[in-house]
Amino acid sequence: MSILVVGSVFFDDIETPHGKAARALGGAATYFAVAASFFAPVQMVAAVGDDFPREEMDFLAQRGVDVSGLQVRSGRTGFWAGRYHEDMNRRDTLDLQLNVFADFRPELSPSHRTAEYVFLANIDPRLQSMVLDQLAAPSLIGCDTMNHWITESRADLEPLLQRVHVLAINDEEARLLSGEQNIVLAARRLLAMGPKRVLIKRGEYGVLQFSPESIFAVPAFPLEQVFDPTGAGDTFGGGFMGQLARSGDTSEAGIRRAIVYGSVMASFVVEDFGLNRLRGLTHAMVDQRYRQFVSLTDIDGA
Ligand code: AMP
């Protein structure tokens, strides 16, 4: 079953305590699509400039990402620059140039409209709603957002939340959106706003999933060195939705396995700058880390 993702495709300048990368391929939709492509076919809808390199288009196509929905506009691809603190859960945005992304309007082709698995990466909630308006009968809709939209566009975001199944946001965004400091109370408040499940991404502390019936916690995979956390949340989303699309299993157990696959993909992406770690990754490596992940939390294990 294929997955549709709508969001940003940018170039990133990234600085972490371990080094720098200039004009690395990034953007939320890119991280999501590349991660999800390890599990299922992916269709991507976004806008890039006419400076977008042929090799990167080829890379996406080689990963099985359908780029027919990538609008190539005259102008420059969006650009983001960020610098991480010593505590890499914290970063500062140094520059943001939306460029051709500024007037991006998602237009879905007939093949996009029939998508069953849909991920609304972090963009203006009005555009996210516009995507949902064009879909025939999606069975699972995941959604991300960020502080900017929570504070500036709450009136657009709240009706959108009533239409999505899984809200995946970080802990800071969960607190801001819910108005609750305690993360459990925040999740309860968010569930009351519409989504059936809320996934709270907590960086190096892992992920918490809340539904009205259950709470599920997964740690982040313990790594000796995290080089670059950029895109970890979107990569998590790609692994999560990818596994759901591959298995078709949206039972509680199926969702829990998908959360572990999402965590596996995120644990890889942070091991190098940008998307570099995913470029050489194999299915065997993904499966091996999945098994390591399961044994990490096997309370009956030797
Ligand atoms: P994350 O680390 O999950 O926040 O994702 C980082 C990615 O989001 C980077 O690759 C950026 O290019 C992209 N990004 C940064 N700011 C924005 C924005 N305002 N809208 C859309 N994408 C953005």
Keywords:
four-stranded mixed beta sheet, binds adenosine monophosphate, nine-stranded mixed beta sheet, alpha/beta, 302 residues, 38% helix
Your description of this structure?
Helix 7 (about 170-180) crosses helix 8 and helix 9 packs antiparallel against helix 10. The protein has helices spanning about 30-35, 55-60, 110-115, 125-135, 145-150, 155-160, 170-180, 185-190, 230-245, 250-270, 275-280, 285-295, and strands at about 5, 10-15, 20-25, 40-50, 65-75, 80-85, 90-95, 115-120, 140-145, 165-170, 195-200, 205-210, 215-220. It has about 300 residues and is an alpha/beta fold. The longest helix is centred in the last third of the chain and has 18 residues, at about 250-270. The protein has a single domain, classed as Ribokinase (UDP-N-acetylmuramoyl-L-alanine:D-glutamate ligase, 3-Layer(aba) Sandwich), CATH 3.40.1190. The mean pLDDT is about 95. The chain contains 12 helices and 13 strands. The chain has a 9-stranded mixed β-sheet, with helices on both faces. The chain is globular and about 55 Å long. The protein starts with a strand and ends in a 6-residue tail after the last helix. It binds adenosine monophosphate. Adenosine monophosphate binds near residues 10, 96, 123, 231 and 233. Adenosine monophosphate binds near residues 80, 123 and 230.
